[in-house]
Amino acid sequence: MKKPLLEVKNLKINFKTYAGLVQAVRGVEFTLYEGETLAIVGESGSGKSVTSNAIMKLIPEPPGIYADGQILFEGKDLIPLSDKEMSKIRGNDIAMIFQDPMTALNPTIRVGKQIMEVILKHKKVSKQEAKERAIELLRQVGIPMPEKRFNQYPHEFSGGMRQRVVIAIALAADPKLLIADEPTTALDVTIQAQILELLKEIQKERKTSIIFITHDLGVVANVADRVAVMYAGQIVEYGTVNDIFYNPKHPYTWGLLGSMPDLNNKSDEKLFAIPGSPPDLTNPPKGDAFAPRNKYALAIDFEKEPPMFKVSETHYAKTWLLHEYAPKIDIPEPIVRRMERYKKEAELSES
Amino acid sequence: MNHKLLEVKNLTQYFGSPSNPIKAVDGISFHIFEGETLGLVGESGSGKSTTGRSIIGLYNMTDGEVIFKGKNVHKIKSKKEQKQLKREMQMIFQDPYASLNPRMTAGEIISEAFDIHGLYKNKKERQERIVSLLEAVGLNREHMTRYPHEFSGGQRQRIGIARALSLNPSFIIADEPISALDVSIQAQVVNLLKELQEERNLTYLFIAHDLSMVKYISDRIAVMYRGKIVELGDAEEIYHHPIHPYTKSLLSAVPLPDPILERKRKRIPYVQEETSDFASMHEPLPNHFVYGTDEQLNKWLKQAQL
């Protein structure tokens, strides 16, 4: 049986603002096992970045408030830890790759020194050893001529190369958990593909667990073992990557899948867009937060929040449509058609 | 449909010192038919945005010609004709946060252009035009007096679209109009652009790096790499039978929302081949253009089994 590395239980995070209390994360629960990749998908404002920052304890207090819940890392709750205790874990056991490689590096410090900084902080090594290790890391993340690059400043690197440096820094102390917050969003597709390959290679070699935050379902299909779909501060669907892509149950997941055209979409068919925009979390709607945008919403959706319904051992979804009394609604046509087309393509490439 | 609305000939845009210029756009030629959407794709730095901006006149072109409705845009001298041209050609910008003046209401932003062009008879008509534009992009009368910060990203982009439509243009350059938006909102905006195109017989130059969206919205596609168009053709052709190795590489990098296909995917890296001075545009298949030398083309065609 696989061992859980990270367990997040009923996590609630609020922010005090002038407009009122924003309930950014409203009871998130998930488990991450050793060596696997969990993708958290959602739109901006869905709470995915707040969740990941919370695991790193990077939520500023105030205005942030850890209102409820536990973050168990190897069985130990991180929430009550002091800043000092946390700084031993941060960068060492849990490391983070940020979205924008242009701002994640210090422009006035040579990249080599920025990598060494982490090694010297967390490992008992001499400066010379740290330097050797930093150069080795640069080599591992695929930077050519690492000895020369070691002494360069961030502006001398391209966007993709900078993101490799950011990854090298994250890997410097050999963390058990890597949180990647939209690591490829700012990059070109060709560079994105390279970075995704690199992350997968690293995971294979080091057995690192990865939390991958993104809004791009194509990227999710590429990297994830399991997927959590977030909406309005909650996980609305949770399952293996196959569950989510081949048997999605939540109308929001349908919407996300449908709103992404793929290379085979006929241009005369309309995209399956989700109408409206996400709710204001200072005042989350009563019942199912997605109901106002959901064309399959039932009367109860506007009254009572749905529980997580179990679809299978691995697959859960938070929608009243899964209740035994709910009318049977099938996955929308365009998505089914696409799945069938992909199936054929997959078979074709098999033969 | 086979009437050329816009023709670009040898468009060249250099920046920096004339002795050692940065060749952002390096002599490209293409045309856009009336009522169609031409997608322009490429990585950052390929010159796709510069192309759009040069066409509409936000930069002074280093060399080349832009011919719109049979007239050379840069040779128009009379003020009246210039004004007319500006009505015909409009732009939608990438960042809906930076492209709207935060101190103007949505109504003011939309009406600014027709105030300048004097396109209404009285206040009532002006008001009606603003409302009809707001409604055309899925907003309503109440939004007229609000400021940009009161809108979400998707709504802001709708205001940007309404502004572009305000002078009843025939041609719109959309420079990455959806890349700053969330996935579900992207689909809304793309659907809106398609509806407007049908209703108003608009012609689009759609610039983006998101290949799946470009494929979806475009009739034809031009692929740019380092200031050159390396391949141009029918959207279906480009996607299913790419010839230029860069196009192949770009296509192989697009992630698909399907785990099984993703696991099998093989990325094709692009090794840049030196293109000598003999390189030029070829038309190996009808209406499918590829940039390269004769030898390169023969090799690529063999690889593509054509």
UniProtKB/TrEMBL annotation, chain A:
Primary site of residence: membrane
Residue ranges constituting the ABC transporter domain according to the UniProt record: 8-257
Subcellular location: Cell membrane
Any GO CC annotation of this UniProt entry: plasma membrane
Record-linked InterPro entries: AAA+_ATPase, ABC_Ni/Peptide_Import, ABC_transporter-like_ATP-bd, ABC_transporter-like_CS, Oligopep_ABC_C, P-loop_NTPase
Keywords assigned by UniProt, alphabetized: ATP-binding, Cell membrane, Membrane, Nucleotide-binding, Transport
An example Gene Ontology biological process: peptide transport
Pfam families: ABC_tran, oligo_HPY
Listed GO MF terms: ATP binding; ATP hydrolysis activity
Membrane topology of this protein: Peripheral membrane protein
Top-rank taxon, per record: Bacteria
NCBIfam families in the cross-refs: oligo_HPY
PANTHER family, sorted: DIPEPTIDE TRANSPORT ATP-BINDING PROTEIN DPPD, OLIGOPEPTIDE TRANSPORT ATP-BINDING PROTEIN APPD
Family membership noted in the UniProt record: Belongs to the ABC transporter superfamily.
Name the UniProt record assigns to this protein: Oligopeptide transport system ATP-binding protein
From TrEMBL, chain B:
GO MF: ATP binding; ATP hydrolysis activity
Record domain ABC transporter: where: 6-251
SUPFAM superfamilies xref list: P-loop containing nucleoside triphosphate hydrolases
Keyword Manganese among record annotations: no
Transport as UniProt keyword: yes
Alphabetical keyword list: ATP-binding, Nucleotide-binding, Transport
GO biological process: peptide transport; transmembrane transport
Lineage top rank: taxon: Bacteria
Family: Belongs to the ABC transporter superfamily.
Protein's name according to its UniProt entry: Oligopeptide transport system ATP-binding protein
Source species of the chain: Ureibacillus thermosphaericus
